[in-house]
Amino acid sequence: MLQEKQRIMDFANNNPFARMLNIEIKEMEPGAAVIEVKVRPMHLNPHGTLHGGVLSSMADIAMGVAVRTLGKIGVTVTLNTNFINPGNLGERIVARGKVTHQGNTLVATECIITRDSQVLAQSTGVFFVIHNRHLED
């Protein structure tokens, strides 16, 4: 299991898009993942607050990693994000993704994105399973 966790961590940390955004995987357990980003100038929208695309990307990555922790490789079918509060320059933003239902071909997920204890966004997603792998492989 430790080897699979490292494989998932390596895969997620080598995602060019996540690296470009400076997203870091912080925690993983079966069916859940926590990622983090420190808001930099490149993350801001023209209004000077955290761009919604960064929040949506964080949700997609956190939920996708959560799916992968269950030995499933999935691609996003749907991603819905509700933006609640703005993020600001210099803040640490945390996304907690988790699997809420897993089937053979579709996996349902949710994600809460926070700054400290304040919710910035809530997301749900559905992933299509393209491959199941045994955690010992």
Please provide a written account of the structure.
The structure is a single chain. The chain is α+β, with helices and mostly antiparallel strands and 137 residues long. The protein has one domain (2-132): Hotdog Thioesterase (Thiol Ester Dehydrase, Chain A), CATH 3.10.129.10. The chain is 25% helix and 45% strand. It is built from 3 helices and 6 strands, in the order ααββαββββ. The chain has a 6-stranded antiparallel sheet with strand order 1-2-4-5-6-3. A hairpin with a 3-residue loop joins strand 4 (92-102) and strand 5. The radius of gyration is 14 Å and the shape is globular.
Concise synopsis of the structure shown:
GO terms for molecular function: acyl-CoA hydrolase activity. The chain is built from three helices and six strands. By secondary structure, it is of the alpha+beta class.
CATH class: Alpha Beta
Sheet/helix structural class: alpha+beta
| CA gyration radius, whole angstroms | 14 Å
Query: What percentage of the residues does DSSP assign to strands (E)?
Result: 35-45%
- Topology, number of strands: 6
Pfam families: 4HBT
GO molecular function: acyl-CoA hydrolase activity
Domain Thioesterase: 47-120
Organism: Desulforamulus ruminis (strain ATCC 23193 / DSM 2154 / NCIMB 8452 / DL)
